[in-house]
Amino acid sequence: MYAIIKSGGKQYRVAQGDILRVERDALAGAKDSKVTFGEVLMVGGDKPQIGVPFVSGASVAGTIIREDRGDKIIVFKKKKRKNHTKRMHGHRQDLVEIRIDSITI
Description:
Order of helices and strands: EEEEEEEEEE
Distance between the termini: 11 Å
Radius of gyration: 18 Å
Number of strands: 10
Shape: elongated
Helix content: under 10%
């Protein structure tokens, strides 16, 4: 059985026992705390259920394993022949690793 959940504006396909990395802005909690995703878009398996927009009564439970930061992304802007200064910015997204414990319908 698998489920498609929505977290932080993104959609993820998860199954029991999966390790998932989501944005920390969407979740609040410390290490080893429980997290519940209520926005389940679809539950798949023998009898798939598709939500309009969410499947009623379905939820996905997980445990926060650790907090981490993603790889550095460099944003570089330059316009040729415009006497425009070069701009360079870096960004690292704060992430949370979650282990999916159960999918309930």
